[in-house]
Design goal:
With 230 residues, the protein is an all-alpha fold. It folds into 3 domains: 101 residues, no CATH class; 53 residues; 39 residues, no CATH class. It contains 11 helices and no strands. Helix 4 crosses helix 5, helix 4 crosses helix 6 and helix 7 crosses helix 9. The chain is elongated, with a radius of gyration of 29 Å.
Amino acid sequence: MFLPTFYTDREKGRAMRREWEREDLIECWTLDEDEFALVGNKTGATRLGFGLLLKFFGLEGRFPRREDVPKPAVDFIAGQVKVAPELFGQFDFVSRQVASHRKQIREFYQFQTIMVGDEDKLIVWMAEEICPVDTSRDRLRSAFVTRYRQEKIEPPTPGQAERLLGAAEPRPICPPFRPAAQDRSCDDQRACARSDPARWPVRPVRADGLRAVTPARSVTAVVTGVERAQ
């Protein structure tokens, strides 16, 4: 069984290279006995597409889009499964059958799809271990993807990855409320109020620097308002 290799340049988020030497194709894209058994009796475009998905996942730890698969790999796999390489254009990447094939491939490599609990653990790991020592978004993204692969979890889509990274990155914390008598400028409180007025209401300041108190409504005014509503 061929286990995922996860090359360093791919861990940095770069696309798979488009040009492959013959020796590299033999090393990385040759189907072994177990992989041929998984291909089984599939035929035509399905046979070719499955072989490519299988080997691509083994190299990258993720499933490709059509444009991610290099042409030399298509030709090389086609020769092994005895299918014309042109049939790759007919392979349906979003069919129900392919969803089943993806499940087979994940099980073959002992990977799993991400669950909510996995997301939470990875966010905590990033927030505690990586974000405090590195603020480069590219390196954070690389560490995030690498961690997924180490945990044998299928990486998220680029959009999902950005959302999870955003959840892990530290946010500025508003200072606690302080009366104006202790801090005449109130700049921190006003800045917080602009960002979250519901949480940080700013009352007007009197000339003596104290917060103005909003007069309470009288009982009569409250009763009158209720009667009018009725």
